[in-house]
Amino acid sequence: MLLWGVLAVALVVALASWMRASRLARKLEALNQSYWELRYEFTRLRSQVARLDPETELAEPPAASATSGTTVAYVSLSSMKKKPNA
Description:
The chain is mostly helical. Helix content is about 65%, strand content about 0%. The model has no long low-confidence stretch (mean pLDDT about 80).
């Protein structure tokens, strides 16, 4: 009789866990959907602002602005070739 009681409790716990997992999966799906809608809306609004005020440029990412103080020179690959030993 004790075995049947343990089995019943385990079944109830498993059912409750399954219901909670499915509820969390639905919440995660709704959160993911909201995230992509927000990204879409942000991109759409950013393009509208760019069309309204084309003179202002969008802010550069911090990594790009950190290297803007250094100058980069072009070096051709032919100048880097090793000279053959004579």
